[in-house]
Amino acid sequence: MQQLEQVRGLIVCQRKEWGEILSGFETRNKYVVLDEFGQELYLAMEEGGSFLVRSFLKALRPFEIVLLTLAQQPVLRIHRPFRFYFHQVQVRDAAGQILGTIKRRFSVLRRRYDVLDDQGRMIYELFGPLLHPWTFEIRRGEEQYGKITKRWSGVGKEMFTDADNFGVEWPCDWPAGIKALFLGAVFLIDFMYFENVNKNR
After folding, report:
1. Which of 159, 163, 121 has the alpha carbon at shortest distance from 140?
2. DSSP class per residue in 139-184
3. How confident is the model at residue 110 (pLDDT cuts 50, 70, 90)?
4. How far apart are CA 144 and CA 127, in angstroms?
5. How confident is the model at residue 17 (pLDDT cuts 50, 70, 90)?
6. Are the C-beta atoms of 118 and 99 separated by less than 8 Å?
7. DSSP designation for 44
8. Could you point out which of 3, 33, 44, 148 has its C-alpha 20 to 30 Å from the C-alpha of 69?
């Protein structure tokens, strides 16, 4: 995770294959992760999961996403168990050590997630403002430290697929382990709020 130490933000771009675009059948998600200058740092891909699970559960499906260097070395694993409502992901490093968990908090109108460290202690919050549905602010108390934002993917992607681009910003001097937690949060947010939006229009 050394590459995360010096970056103040990342761009996560979902990759769609033409077979999925034309057929409409859900395949395993794939992503490329870029630094703020557009240089590729990592690849990410969904592992496991049957075709039936992807077809019927769609965005609610459990997943395991592995983050790889460009040399195909694993860096992170993001695991999401099946949940109807209190959705969460657990982020682990390449050695299997837990870095933390992102967990949905009960809220009627607001989109709130607790960001927990490896001991289960709340260290930050992800807060989705009601009037900004494409933005999640990284907060501690009333202070904002960064944000996760869905970005415009271009007319072709937005019209024909549910492929999305996300930006995540944080203080440059944060530890790589904390940055990794919010990178993991991007995948949960993608599944929860944007995975099947365009297909259902």
Report:
1. 121
2. EETTEEEEEEEEE---HHHHHH----EEEEE--TTS-HHHHHHHHH
3. confident
4. 10
5. low
6. yes
7. E
8. 148
15 vs 183, higher pLDDT: 183
Q: How many domains does the chain have?
A: 1
Which token pair is 68? 């790889």
Neighbours of 88 (CB within 10 A): 16
| Mean pLDDT across 179-187 | 96
Cα 89 to Cα 60: distance, rounded to the nearest angstrom = 12
SS3 (DSSP) at 187: helix
Say whether 53 sits in a helix, a strand or coil.
helix
Average pLDDT over residues 63-89: 92
Cα–Cα distance between 175 and 192 in angstroms, integer?
26
Residue 30: predicted pLDDT: 92
Rounded CA separation 112/108 (Å): 10
Q: Which domain, by its residues, includes 32?
A: 2-200
Q: Which of residues 200 and 184 earns the better pLDDT score? A: 184
Distance, CA of 13 to CA of 43 (rounded, Å) = 10
